[in-house]
Design brief:
This is LysE family translocator. Keywords: Cell membrane, Membrane, Transmembrane, Transmembrane helix. The chain has 212 residues and is an all-alpha fold. The chain contains 11 helices and no strands. The radius of gyration is 18 Å and the shape is globular. The two termini are 25 Å apart.
């Protein structure tokens, strides 16, 4: 399905990308720190789900069509920023009395999964990334079509990304265990996540989109 001679270069590039801090890492790490490992795992799965969707769109050529339309990219950016701002506002206005304990926090897992999926799909930079990154490793020596190669490469990227994020969840979640037992932190954990969503919104709205 792919040219294995380019695989070492591809894997090196993927590992380098995974080690660069970004909005996905911030959301997953902060979720694990604020609500525990289970919530962090679901946030990681949400990120992987959106990655698979973006991979399929890139392999089908849909992402390239969207990426070439400046208006579509700006609409995505505004929708994504508005969604993140709403999430931040919802967290900020939550009463401290609603702070969950360790067991109740697990109920937030599905919510963080959904937020991770939507925020990534509404991020035009994520869409453009797949358009620009995957085609670089499509080889004319492989028997598979360019779309099939991009699909395999994208799925490999998502698997490696998920494994990395689960490792991150384990590390950060372990460090955050004492915080989850701290009453003062627990009364402010929603506000901490609200601040994270505001930072992500500013990150998205203020950043310049790369040119496809």
């Amino acid at each position: 399905m792919i040219d294995f001679t380019v695989l070492p270069v591809y894997l090196t590039a993927v590992i380098a990308l995974l080690l660069i801090p970004g909005p996905d890492m911030l959301l997953i790490a902060s979720s694990s720190l604020s609500y525990g490992k289970k919530v962090g795992v679901f946030a990681s799965l949400g990120n992987a789900t959106s990655g698979v969707v973006l991979t399929i769109l890139a392999a089908m050529g849909v992402s390239a069509l969207i990426a070439m339309n400046p208006i579509a990219l700006q609409v995505l950016r505004l929708l994504g920023g508005a969604y993140l701002l709403k999430m931040g506002w919802d967290c900020m206005r939550t009463s401290p009395a609603d702070a969950p304990d360790v067991e109740q926090a697990s109920g937030l897992a599905k919510t963080l999964y959904r937020r991770a999926v939507i925020s990534n799909l509404l991020n035009p930079k994520a869409l453009i990334f797949f358009v620009l990154f995957l085609p670089q490793f499509v080889s004319t020596q492989a028997t598979a079509s360019s779309g099939e190669q991009m699909l395999v490469l994208g799925l490999l990227l998502n698997v490696l990304g998920l494994l990395f994020n689960l490792f991150l969840v384990t590390m950060v979640g372990s460090l955050g265990q004492p915080l989850l037992k701290n009453e003062k932190f627990r009364t402010n954990q929603h506000k901490f996540m609200g601040l994270v969503f505001f930072v992500l919104a500013i990150w998205l709205l203020a950043s310049q989109l790369p040119t496809p």
